[in-house]
User: Fold this.
Amino acid sequence: MRETISIAFACDEAYARHVAVVIKSIFANAEETDSFEFHIITMELTALSQSRLQQIAKDNGSTLEIHYIEPSRLSEFPESRLTLNAYLRLFIPELFSEKNKILYLDADLIVLDSLRSLWEHPLDNCAVAAAVDSMECFGGSSLEHFRNLGLPPAHAYFNSGVLLLNLKNLRDIQLLEKVIAWFPNNIYPYADQDALNATLVGQISYFHDRWNLQVPLIDTVRFGWGCLQEQAEAVANPAIIHYVTERKAWCREYKLPFQKLYFQYLSQTPWKTESFPAYTLAEGLNRFKEEMDWCYKWARSEIRRKLGRHPQPTR
Assistant:
């Protein structure tokens, strides 16, 4: 029998429906022999949301457990543009002391392939397996941010939304204590992600970008604004779509890749009857503007392609 894939989320009541969408997308794209156990780490989740999430797992032959963290335990973490929920993943090694590894997923993504290959990615002696963050591709202020963090040039800044965690290794190095000790003199905008990059230098295994295809990269590749070969491969065959900015799949005023899939999977959850607020005029106009802008960029890229001016991916 194949090993059960253990998956952890960190969320509050506001993100419960989005976790449900992720779980639905996992089941929809699983192999017949895949089995799962789900864990949700939270400071606040209603009994109704717990029951709904557990029923989704049960209906698909899986289990889902809720793990509460007292809010007082996060008093040492700084507030940032992100909520304190972002820090909950740091408690995973402590919560799962009997496990050797676990897959952590953010709630703002959609799974498009079986997670088996990602689960079997070799960790060797690394603490974490992750994908390079899209900020690495755009340069500019991001490069200054990496320098401010004190990251060596050889370290590729990784995204913390999809992580395969080597729990034994993380317990051995006392990750939570290291991060807490790092924060007092290091306040940066990406909170736990910055802390993980700063404290885990030299202990990262990188998996293919298709396992954490961050949405800002998709149109960059499609419209021929330059990309690496691995990014082109990821866009051609994505396994996980990750909405890393404030432009989330459920924000209908934005035109986003694979957005229809989010609502397709949402319609299969108990939250399907809880409608979103009606479009405001401003949101409708913004959506129309984005549709027109996308069409213009697509047409321009097609013309460049036919003229042979579309840049080829670099190795």
Remarks:
- The longest strand covers residues 158-166.
- Residues 14 and 31 are 30 Å apart (CA to CA).
- The chain has 13 helices and ten strands.
- The two ends are 39 Å apart (CA to CA).
